[in-house]
UniProtKB/TrEMBL annotation:
Domain of life according to the entry: Bacteria
CDD domains registered for this protein in UniProt: SIS_RpiR
PROSITE patterns assigned: HTH_RPIR, SIS
Designated name of the protein: Transcriptional regulator
InterPro entries: Homeodomain-like_sf, HTH_RpiR, RpiR-like, RpiR-like_SIS, SIS_dom, SIS_dom_sf, WH-like_DNA-bd_sf
Lineage: Bacteria, Pseudomonadati, Pseudomonadota, Betaproteobacteria, Burkholderiales
Keywords: DNA-binding, Glycolysis, Transcription, Transcription regulation
GO molecular function, one term: DNA-binding transcription factor activity
Length: 281
């Protein structure tokens, strides 16, 4: 991203060039400062700062700063260094947390809103039709499947979550047209999950994969929500894929909640009242 800004400087107006040089001088500061201070530092007007961002191909300052923060975070070598035996607790904290944050920002910058919309529409349509919604996962992804069931249940959307391969294959056999199976896997190569996806698809159910791009599972499902984060133990990231999948589920559940609309409000309020009464009695 910074290389592209450097290459574009000669073609920009002089005032926009000053904004570009400000980005290159301190990208981290640019990503966190308000537009007023950015304009003062570059000695330009606030609209000029916004024009510069749009000339770089972004919707505006907010979009540009978000992408810039992700680009800078992904490029920090410290994040990708292994955890050493002599690391202090503070070093470990920074390495592990920054690696997770970098993965989230990378997902934010690369996620397909079209795929998310298709998945949200499919789940909402299945719920409205009173059909089956099922979440499948194995290992860490099995915990994500259970979390998904919990989140959607809180929306009044009943579903099934299974992490046992045999049950997944049997359950997929019972699916049919109008039903929906969400299959979660980091590698996208787990045999049981592949079998369940194949069976559900052949039975006419909508299949949604939350997995890595280019994996067999991604190719086998009708809708693919790409969650790309290879588990590299030299970066100490064995749990980042699970966190990333949980993030995707959060986005998906929120999109479905918005599609359900105002009718969801009394259900949520009643649920909160019931839980509160149970908790304090």
């Amino acid at each position: 991203m910074l290389d592209r800004i450097t290459a574009s400087l000669p073609s920009l107006a002089p005032a926009e060039q000053r904004v570009g040089r400000l980005v290159l001088a301190d990208a981290r500061a640019f990503a966190r400062l308000p537009v007023r201070e950015l304009a003062e530092r570059a000695q330009v007007s606030k609209p000029t700062v916004v024009r510069f961002c749009r000339s770089m191909g972004y919707d505006g300052l907010a979009d540009f700063k978000l992408k810039l923060a992700g680009s800078v975070s992904e490029g920090v070598p410290f994040i990708h260094r292994s955890v050493d035996a002599d690391d202090k607790t503070g070093d470990v904290l920074v390495k592990v947390v920054d690696n997770a944050v970098a993965a989230f920002l990378q997902y934010r910058n690369a996620a397909s809103t079209v795929a998310i919309e298709r998945a949200a529409e499919a789940i909402t349509g299945t719920w409205k039709a009173g059909k089956r919604i099922e979440f499948y996962g194995a290992g860490n992804s099995g915990f994500v499947a259970q979390d998904a069931q919990h989140k959607f249940f809180r929306l009044g959307v009943t579903s099934i979550a299974t992490s046992d391969g045999h049950i997944q294959v049997m359950s997929a056999t019972l699916l049919g047209p109008g039903d929906c199976a969400v299959i979660i896997s980091n590698s996208g190569r787990t045999r049981d999950l592949m079998d369940a996806a194949d069976i559900a698809r052949k039975n006419g159910a909508t299949t949604i994969a939350i997995t890595a791009s280019g994996s067999p599972l991604a190719a086998a499902c009708a809708i693919h929500l790409a969650a790309d984060h290879p588990e590299g133990y030299d970066r100490y990231s064995p749990m980042v894929s699970r966190l990333l999948h949980l993030l995707v589920i959060d986005v998906l559940a929120t999109c479905v909640a918005l599609r359900i609309g105002p009718s969801l409000q009394p259900v949520l309020q009643q649920m909160k009242d019931n839980l509160r009464a149970k908790r304090y009695t």
